[in-house]
Write a structure and sequence with these properties.
Layout lengths: L3 H7 L6 E7 L2 E7 L3 E6 L4 E7 L26 E2 L23 E8 L5 E7 L3 H6 L4 E9 L3 E9 L5 E3 L1 E3 L2 E3 L7 E3 L5 E4 L5 E4 L4 E2 L4 E5 L5 E6 L4 E8 L3 E6 L1 H8 L10 E8 L5 E3 L4 E12 L2
Antiparallel strand pairs: 1-2, 2-3, 3-4, 5-11, 6-7, 7-8, 8-9, 9-23, 10-22, 11-21, 12-21, 13-16, 13-18, 14-15, 14-17, 17-20, 18-19, 19-23, 20-21
The protein binds 6-O-phosphono-beta-D-glucopyranose.
6-O-phosphono-beta-D-glucopyranose binds next to strand 20.
Length: 302
């Protein structure tokens, strides 16, 4: 496993990075650019903060989030890979895949001439992960930090038989008040309503919140916006290589049961996940690479 001293040595000339140990064996990378700051935990290559200059944080992290090896972090950008939700046949495998709870390697970190920072990661597959994912594949995750945050997942089938891939950038966004928030860009899409026995429904107009919501929107167009009157901003989400969008807020009762949401944390977060899930899982042929990207930008409203 990578140690903090090794990272400091390898990236000694990268003055825009610093490495901190948040808990024993739990390393985080802090990135500073002229436009924004970000934090990425090495476990899961998990972005836990992104804050453009002059803005409130864009990414929500629970005040009760736990940083412990092998445990998923409540908030930030968990990477769900190589399946989304429960595994298709193995009930004992971890929900949302293993990528978010295994260590990753930082392969590269560069400052681009325009001032943005670009980091490249790959998962350090352990025996348990290999047993759960017996397919020959490689995966790379790029994080670009600037005025916008750009996340890019690339999965290659390096074997000789096709496999199915489910995935999501399970981003928790910080909002002022869930009751006033709406999501634009999903009008007319069919969704699987996971709080109504997975019935299929059609979205009419913007998505608004009143208690627990857990939906997988199918065949989505790659552009939606979180309209947040309380923080007077819209977070614009554009994506490529993604056919599904998951919208999730646990509501008060479920959040209280989960134990790591913090007091009323659910009022200040919404997950809008760039995904390939349910009907939209990807079949990857031998030699093929699938790229999925998500780009976040903040627009001020007044
Ligand atoms: C969402 C799912 O993506 O993630 C929900 O649609 C799930 O069903 C939620 O509850 C949180 O998952 P977890 O495993 O991080 O608690």
């Amino acid at each position: 496993m990578t140690t903090i001293d090794e990272l400091k040595r390898r990236f000694t000339s990268a003055d825009f990075l610093s490495f901190v140990e948040k808990a024993p064996g739990f390393i985080a990378i802090e990135v500073k650019t002229a436009f924004s700051t970000a934090t990425i935990a090495l476990q899961g290559a998990h972005v836990t903060s992104w804050q453009p200059k002059g803005q409130k944080p864009v990414i929500w992290l629970s005040k009760a989030a736990k940083f412990a090896p092998g445990k998923s972090i409540r908030g930030g950008v968990p990477i769900c890979w190589p399946w989304f939700g429960p595994h298709a046949s193995e009930a004992g495998y971890p929900g949302h895949g293993f990528a978010r709870t295994i260590p990753w390697k930082l392969l590269e970190a560069q400052k681009l001439p325009d001032g943005r920072a670009r980091l490249l990661f790959e998962p350090a597959m352990n025996d348990a992960a290999r047993a759960q994912w017996p397919h020959a594949s490689t995966m790379r995750y790029g994080v670009m930090i600037g005025q916008e945050l750009v996340l890019a997942l690339a999965t290659k089938n390096t074997g000789s038989v096709p496999f199915q891939l489910g995935q999501a950038l399970h981003t928790y966004f910080q909002i002022g008040d869930i009751g006033q928030t709406s999501i634009a860009g999903l009008d007319g899409c069919t969704y699987i309503d996971k709080v109504a026995k997975a019935t299929r429904k059609k979205q009419k107009g913007a998505v608004t919140f009143n208690g627990e919501m857990d939906r997988v929107y199918l065949g989505t167009a790659g552009c939606c916006g979180i309209i947040d009157p309380a923080l007077k901003r819209t977070i614009l989400i554009t994506s490529t290589g993604s056919r599904s969008t998951v919208v999730w807020n646990p509501g008060a009762e479920k959040a209280a049961k989960m134990g790591d949401f913090g007091r009323q944390g659910e009022n200040n977060m919404v997950c809008v996940e760039t995904a390939n899930a349910a009907d939209d899982v990807i079949t990857l042929a031998p030699g093929e690479t699938h790229r999925m990207t998500a780009q976040y930008r903040v627009l001020r409203n007044g």
